[in-house]
């Protein structure tokens, strides 16, 4: 039996909402139901340009989307400074919440959002798309294989892209009143999530920001890095930037094996994604090469990763709607751990790059 299609409303016409609107259309268990913007003309243009069905409602404000009885769930791509208000209100209106990252300005705000979702019985999930690509689950199997990978010892990740002059001047991610985390909240969120993913979501004990982050004139971070330390000796580092060439790397090193990929945030191709593995690697007799050679693995998908995200979220919402299931706690827990580390990196920068303990 086919799943009931979950009716989605979207709050705002951010650029990323174009991608998610397409994902909602591609997902087999979701439908575009409504769009709201502060300008009804802008909402009309967005709907016309992004494949909304003729039945979709067009609103000149966000409140009307939340008041629409046909809307089951809302996608919120608003600036981070607005997440608390609109995510909490959405939950209070019994709308399930798919929230763009970074999810909040700090973990205290996120806790208020998560409490509103839990008390109103609605599903929460953040918009970290790569988590839902089938490649991610395949790589997880390798990292969990104690014979081939062993125990994680170190992880290193980087996400950078070179913003053009217009981006660096006008994008909401460089405005202190809209997204005060800057590159740390945008690109850094992905790096932190990937490190936690490699560590099977075990929080580090301490975080130490790297010296000399780059700021814009308004004091927003354009590039920064950090190291993470665990009590058992694991270490990790990341670098995130709006000023360097497009790079999306993860390296996870275990006692027996290692994993590498170079496109973890957005795969090079929409329908397939690869990664490389090595296990029990050594040198040839004269140290002129490796034995065995690393192996390349390709994972194909019928749906782009953002549609996989929507499909999984809609499936959870459908279980609640049709069967009275409880909201899945896995995804809000992962979001909260990511926010905790993000907050700790920011605190380390503000404290002169001192180590900051991560307290859950």
Q: Given the structure, what is the number of helices?
A: 10
Rg from C-alpha positions?
21 Å
The CATH homologous superfamily name of the largest domain equals: Dihydrodipicolinate Reductase, domain 2
- Estimated structural class: alpha/beta
Order of helices and strands: EHEHEHEHEHEHEHHEEEEEEEEEEHHE
Question: What composes the largest sheet?
Answer: 10 strands, mixed
**Shape, principal axes of CA atoms:** globular
Low-confidence stretches: none
| Intertermini distance | 41 Å
Count of the separate structural domains: 2
What name does CATH use for the topology of the largest domain? Dihydrodipicolinate Reductase, domain 2
DSSP, total strands: 18
Strand residue content: 25-35%
CATH level 1 class label of the largest domain: Alpha Beta
The proportion of residues forming helix, as a percent range, comes to 25-40%
